[in-house]
Structure formats: C-alpha cells, structure tokens
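Hi D.,

Good news: the full-assembly prediction came through. Inputs first.
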Amino acid sequence: MAIVTFSKKQFEKDIGIFDEKIKDKIAMFGTPLEREEGDSISIEVFPNRPDLLSYQGFKRGFLGFLGKRTGLIQYKLSKPEENYKVIIDSSVRDIRPYTACAVIKGLQLDDEKIKEIIQVQEMLHLTLGRRRKKAAIGIYPLEKIQLPITFRAVEPDKIKFTPLEMDKELSGLEILQKHSAGKEYAHLLAGKVKFPIFVDAKDQVLSMPPIINSQLTGRITSETKDVFVECSGSDMNILKICLNIIATCFADMGGKIYQMELSRGQLRGKETTPDFTPRVMKISLENTNKLLGTSITEKELKECLEKMGYNYKSKLVEIPAWRTDILHEVDLIEDVAIAYGYENLVPEIPEISTTGKESGKEKIKRSIALILAGLGFLEASSYHLTNKKAQIENMNLPEKERVIEVEQSKTEYNALRKNLTHSLLKILSENVDSEYPQKIFEVGKIFNLVSEKITEKESLSLAIAPGNFTETRQAIEYLFRMLEINAVFSEPKNMPSWFIDGRTAEISINGKSIGFIGEIHPKILKNWKIKMPVALFEIDLEEIFKKLIA
Amino acid sequence: MQDANKVLESLSPNEQKILPHIEEKNVSEICKKSSLDKTSVTRALGYLKSKGIVNITAKEKKIVDVGINGALYRKKGLPERRLLQLLEEKRIIKIEEAERQSRLSEEEFRASLGVLKKKAFIELKNEKIFLTAKKEEISRKSLEEIFLDSLPLEFDSLSQEQLYAMKSLEKRRNMIQISDEKTMHVEATEFGIKIMSLSIGANGRGFIEQITPEIIADDSKWRGKKFRRYDLTIPVPKIYGGKRHFVNQAIDYARTVWTEMGFREMSGDIVVSSFWNFDALFTAQDHPVREMQDTFFIDKKTELPDKKLVKEVRESHESGVSGSIGWGYKWDEEEAKKLVLRTHTTCLSSQTLAQLKEKDLPAKFFAIGKCFRNETVDWSHGFEFNQTEGIVVDPKANMKHLLGYLKAFFAKMGFEKVRFRPGYFPYTEPSVEIDVFHPERKVWLELGGAGIFRPEVVVPLLGKNIPVLAWGPGFDRIIMDYYKIKDLREFYRNDINQMRKMKFWVK
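Then the structure:
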C-alpha cells in the first residue's frame, strides 16, 4: 500500500481549509485519507496513479478535480545544453539495459522538499519500479559531477567507490555483502558477471544501480540548486514515466527541466528524455453514457476530462505523459465518472428477469447440518490450512505420508487438510475444560494427492466425546435415513491408523466405500491430550451429492 | 402485603418440610427435625427468606475441632494411652525396648514419656520405665481424651477443664484446629408466623407437586387439589442445543438474499491455476500480488484451458484487445500454470464467464466462499477470509446498476447507508470501493471492491465486449459486527463453551 504524507499547513496554503468537506472530496478523488496527526496528513494512492505519489503530483491532480486548475498542465522543457548527454554502453544490454535521464536547474530546496523527493523516489521504487527491479531512480547534485555521463557495466571487483552511509571505499561485491541496501537488493544482480554503474566525465562513480549512490556525488542537500536525475531498469516505458513523474515534481517545486540526449552508439541511435508529448486516445460520448448510465453532454464530458488533467477536443483526449494507467477508453471513462462524482450516480436496479438458484451441493450440506443440529450436534468450522504435526504426527501416520504444503507460509499453518478427523480431534483437545458430553461435526473441503493430482472433495466428520461406536452409528444411521440413503457397514479393509481394530466399520453406499466409523485408539487420544473416549466418523460427501443431485 | 395463601401454595416440598421447624432457629436443629441435609435446608431457608417468611442473620463463631492427627488419635488412641497399655502389661521395661514394642514413632514416644512423667504415672531409672500409677488411674480417661472425643465444640462454651485440655493439646502438632464458622440464626417474620398457622390448617390437604401419569390417570388424585405454586422468578439451569456454525448461519442468510435477487450460485475449487485467479483477470504477471509474499502457491503446475482462450488472454496482456494497448510485456504460459489457493472468489467469475453462452444473457451469478492470502494473523487479518462475489452479465448493464445491486444487498444485511468511492483493481474499470455506514458506531466500514470488468478481461472470456458488473467485498466484517466479535481469530477457534452460547443469526 502506497502512502503519501504531507503537511496540513502546506495543503491549506496551496489548496484550501482542511475541513470535513475537503476530506470527503479527497476520498471521492480516489485517494482515501489514511491518517491525520498534528500537521501531518497521509493519503493512500492506488497503484494505477503513481503520478500522485508526491505531494506535488497530488496537488496538481486534486486542484484539477476541484476545478481550480483544469486541463493538461504544460511544462516547459529546455533543450539539452552542451554535454547534457548520457552514453549508454552496450555492456549494460543484458544487465540493466535502459536509462532515462534529465537535468533540473534552479531548485530552492529545504528539508521539507528533500523529504518529499525521497518519499516519491521510494514510493516509485516500491510500486512502478517493482522493488527496484523494473526501475530505480538516482538523483545527484550537478555541481559535484561533470557531464557527460556514461552508463556501463564493469566487473564487480573493478568497481570502487564509497557508498552512501559508509566512510570507506568498497568494491561492487563488498557493497552487496556489507551495505544494508546491498544486502536487501543483492538478488537483483545475482548471477551477473558485470554490475552496472553511472560514471561522470572525470570517471568518478555516481552510483551502482539499483543498489546505492556514491557518498561523494549522490546526496542532495538544501544547498543543492541543480540536479542530474537518472532512472535505470528493464522497461523503457516505465523508466520514461518514472522520469516524467520525478521531473514534473521538481518543476512544481520551481525547477527548470532540461532534456538530455541518450546515446546508444552509432548503430542504435539517439533519444531525448524527458518527453512530455501527450498520448492521444479516442473517447466516445455514447460509450461513456452507456457504461455509466448517465446522459451527460459533450460539454460536460470535456469539463470532466479537463478536471482530471486531460485536454479534450473533438472526441480526442490528450493524456499527460506522466499517466501510466490509460490502456483503454474505459480508463478515461472512469476518470469522467470520478470528475462527475460517484456520489452523483444514483443507484438503480434494472428490471431484468433472472431466476435465482442455490448450488445443489450447498443445499445438501445445509440439510445435513440441520439434521445433525437436530440431534444436538454443534457445527464446527476449522481452517483449511493446518500443519504436518497435526495431520501426521498426532495421527500416527508414517513420516513419509504426503501433505500438500503451501510455499513460504507466514504462520504455522502451512499445509492443506487431508481430512476433517484431525480437525475435530484438535477441537476436542482444545476443549478439555468445556462441559461434556461434546458432540461436534464439520462439513468442508479436504485435499489429497491422487496420482500426483490434487483432488478437492467435500467431506463430513462427526465426533462424540465421551462416545462409543453405537452412539456414533446411531447418528449416522439417522442421517442416512433422513436422506434416504442405504449404507452398508462392514469389516474394514484398510482401516485408518487412528481407529481401534474390531470397533471400526467401513461405510459404503452402492458398493462404494465412502469412509469409516469407529472408536479412536487411546494412543491417538494421548497424542491429542484428550482424556475422554472418542468415537467418530468421516465420510466423503461427493457420492452422496451424486445420489441426491440426480 | 402478599397473599399468604398464594405464598403457602408456592412452597416447595422441602420448604414445607422445614416450615414447622423454623422456630428451632439454627440450621443443625432444623436439619435434625426435618431430616433433611444441611445443603437442602440452607437452600430452602434462602427461598423462605426471599418469600419474606423468615429473617436470617448470620453469626460468626469460633469452632474448635480435631486436626489431622487429632482425628487419627481419636480412632487409634493417643500415643500415651498406647504406651500405658504396654506398661500395664510389662510394669517394668527397658526404655529402648518400650519404644520398639509400643510401635510409636520416636517423636510420639518422647511426647508420651513426657506426658506420663508429668502425670506421675511412671518413673525413669537406669534406662528403665517403672509404672507407678494405680489401676483406676490408668483406666480413667484423661481430660485430653475426653475433650478430643467431644469435639467439635464452640470456643465460647468451653469450661475451665476443657480449656485446660485444649491448651495442652494445642501444644502438639495438628491435634486440634480452631476455625471461624458462620452460623445462621433463623427467625420467622410476622408474615412467616401467619403462613405457619395457615400451614397447620392446610396440613394433610397437600399440594400436587410433579404431575405424574398416575396422578392424571386417577381423578381422585387431582380433583379439588391444589397445585403447588412455583416461584416463577427463580432462574433455571441453562441448556444448550446443536446448531450450525455462526459463520455458516450468516453465509446461509446471504445466500438467500442473493437467490431472492435472482442470482445463481457459482461454486468451484479452492486450489486453482494462476490462469483463472490472475491471468484471465488481466493481472500482470509481475504484479506484486503474484508473489509468495502475498499469495499461497503450491509447488505444482496444472494444465491450461483450451488453446484459443489462452491465446486471447496472452494477447490481452501483451498487446491488448478491443482497442486496449495491453500491459506490453511478454506473457509466460508457465507462470499461468502455477497453482495457488484462490486469493479471491473472482476466479469463480472468470471460470463462469468462460462457460457462458450468449443465449443465456442476461445472467446473474453469486458466490460466497473462503479465500486465502499469505498473511500473519491478528485481530483484523487472517490467512483465510470470506468473500461474497457477484457478477451481472447484461448488455444493458451500467455503473448505476452496479451501485443499485450492491445497495440492495447491503440494505438486506442491515446497512441502509452505503457510500461508493473510486478504487482500483487490475480487472475492473471503473472500480469502486464500498463503505457502509455503521448505524450505531457512526463510522464508515470499508468492505471492499466492485467494478465493471475491463474489456481486456471480458473479450477473451466471452468473445465479445459486454458489460459485466462485478463485486467481491469481504463478508467477515459484517459477521463480526453482527455477533459483536472484536477479533477475527474467534471465527475458527471452535471454543465449545462459546459456540454453545453464541446467538443465532436472525435477520
């Protein structure tokens, strides 16, 4: 979740009084208010709007939404000056192939603004940059470096510079091993023979993306007036968007944006960034009204689009170069809806005739639950996820018995349940202090591997404590009578390990085995620390569904 | 003043039994006279008090009773008595011999010698014991023995002799114990006296207690008789019945609401391919939700559905369909084969849409089911949660209808006021966040998302761009609110005591 925090004072100076009405507006703009503490306001920005990840970006968008500054904002781009050039060496091609760069001049930074720049940089890393994999951003004080810049890849042991927050030079490998950022992002360079670096005309290392900047050239302060900005990564479109978002943020702070020339050698040509040329997409008034259920006019459509920062002219929309989320006309239509106000869309239910229908299986499951509740049984409900100890060890199953595990669970629940029996025993073991008799059942899915395929079946298990075979069989026979099912109880062939031999029967319907009923062996009860005798059954419901849903 | 007759008729058998004896004033006497045990008498007295028949005043008194050793000696005899019996036989005996033959412990033996010497019953000379007491002195019970036999006694009523014996016994370990005991002093009230006199008149007539088949069968047993009146205000012991799990009760209700609104239920597997859970829903393959950090993966792959659909989903991601530019990356079939525990019930919607024929439109579907995400557990989060899903496939559907269906559903769930805010999901556009206003707590509760499926989702699945309204708000907060549960972990704790007490879903 991306959170942007800014000062209430600044907000009130730039936008207006921070009252209940404006809070509501913030939510209806699609940036819900997350927190309000003293002078600090935090909003949530959804992943489709990285252009709102800075206060400057939010201000720009929100002022438009309020109708205070509408249409596509034009930023002046100055042509590259001498040496405003980045040479992209072919050595980065298989490592971190792209970069997009800019120079911003004439900044007047203070602590508040520096904080904002760091925040937007981090948020972009996290979201658009996919934790720096797709894009990482570096910002350098221009006075500390000499243009042009070269982006190239070098063997890690030949890279030597002092990274941020360190006081001595480290090699490329040492940075990955010793620096906190190095350790965190080492996986992004894992297996690479060479690491990418930005170096300036004096051959000093500016940074080793996407890991860390140099202590000497990579830290901006309130003294910094001019900066060099680079975004590097694997997706040129994303890099351009990132650069546009950062550059416009600087411009809104009062900076002047200069383009840079990216040179890829003679064969692969040149490119200039940043580029704010808007994309153009068609929007149809008819489609808009149809999708939203509205009847707005073209004039209103234009107004709505302009409030959301677009330009509109004869069915064509100019999309700002810092928006990433406009893939289809529907994305524009959503923005029209936001400008129109979701609160102004009056909910209505159309008169269409459809027949409701409950799932047949759910109906039977509910009937079973009601029948058993009528006998005084409580329905339990357990997690589908359990663990090996409960399923294997406590049930005296052989160590090699397979369970279906989920990967990297954050809790001790890391395997899908293969039966409900162990879930019920767990419940009984956790309730040894509750009043007896305890009569419980559960209906739910169980998961097993059948010739390496995962099967998912609805199952029913019931337990009585203290209970014996007869009582349990009385319950299941009552259930079968109510459902008009003929079941046969027979000497079991492969009895589950938890039952007592001679007190366990196999249950079959139509000659097909559907489960077992019997008394639980004391050794299992001991494993679960249950002090009462327990009798229990578990049956596969799929056969019963087949019989009842004919 | 209460009606004395009515009160009289309401007396239970035990109350009737003790009524004539309440003037005995103390509980043990009433016990004797009524031949009831102490608990029954105390309880009956409590009821008589609540009916205004008696006043009970509690008095504390000191009671002297035997201790652990005292009780033992009372049965076996005091050690000095046992030594004396030996001496009576032997007259003169070596000390060590006496200790062995008396079978007393060393401590008991030493104490007994001391006692007998003090009473001048024996003399010790040359390691030997000489009995000097007279026969009648020996046979007479000592003060201590008499005292021990007479316990328990009230401390305040002890005579000088008894006090002396007590003091002497107190010096020995665990012989006696002194405790404070509450005794009840019972006194009939004025009303009680009236009841008593009435009761004498009523004696013999008798009330009918439990109605039995014998009584019903024999007219003479009930004709003209009175039924004992019950005290209708006394609490009765609680009983508990069997019932559906409270979460399932809530789900059953929601199921009825959706079916009443003309929706058909979808059901399907919990373990699904990434294809249905993500790719068919236009969730880019590098979207953070597709990392193990967020989603439960199973280290297995499955087959993809028919080639045509896979091809169109690929196109939708790579270059877009129906006028979309797509995500612009290279889509990987292998990634789509990975199995996950469904992260939302929306994967049921994608599978349903893939099966739907145009002639079946308009169509409305719903699902309520468990979804999974790789999360740690706290009061408001868990790795399993319930979602309620719905889709409306209708060529004429629009966003106002989406809001209409949701508003109607939440109204039936008890939330009249609903707010819709802009939201974001990879597979819907426009997207909506649903808040409901909590009428008592006066706050907005965030319930989750809704929207209209993107053409990039619908076109590969349906073959055509038809508006599909879709929603999947969480259901657990509604359940928590209804049952006043503060912690999500309560849902699946299966605490039998709590489950027995849990109220029913009545809506």
